[in-house]
Amino acid sequence: VQLQESGPGLVKPSQTLSLTCTVSGGSITTNTYSWTWIRQPPGKGLEWMGAITDSGYTHYAASLRSRTSISRDTSKNQFTLQLSSVTPEDTAVYYCVRRNRSLRTYDYWGQGTQVTVSS
Questions:
Q1: CA proximity to 31, closest of 61, 3, 57
Q2: What are phi and psi of 98, to 5 degrees?
Q3: Which residues of the chain fall short of a pLDDT of 50?
Q4: What does the pLDDT read at residue 96?
Q5: What's the pLDDT at 31?
Q6: What is the β-pairing status of strands 92-100 and 33-40?
Q7: What pLDDT shows up at residue 14?
Q8: Which pLDDT score, from 0 to 100, does residue 60 have?
Q9: What's the rounded Cα separation, in Å, for the pair 43 and 34?
Q10: 6, 22 in Cβ contact below 8 A?
Q11: In the prediction, which pLDDT does 119 show?
Q12: Rounded (5°) CA angle 36-37-42
């Protein structure tokens, strides 16, 4: 299984950040897996942002729920993150990750993509 993030590396404040994760080697509708976005701001730890399950249900971090939307395109085997009203505090490396709910592990990670919020 491989995951690859794509999207702009620079976003202006107040705009919407949009990232897509393309999955190969496995279907995003396969039972047991959730497809997750995790980010790491510079000098800080990993932050779980939200996920979409194999059935299409979404879950979001409470601190980001009002600004976050995760969706999917099953025909392209992709899932997408949208984060609105960004500020420089949203500058981070963003990862798409597969979570195995049965094993309770994050077993496959994308390489990560740097997103900088700056005017």
A1: 57
A2: -95, 130
A3: none
A4: 98
A5: 92
A6: antiparallel
A7: 97
A8: 98
A9: 27
A10: yes
A11: 94
A12: 145
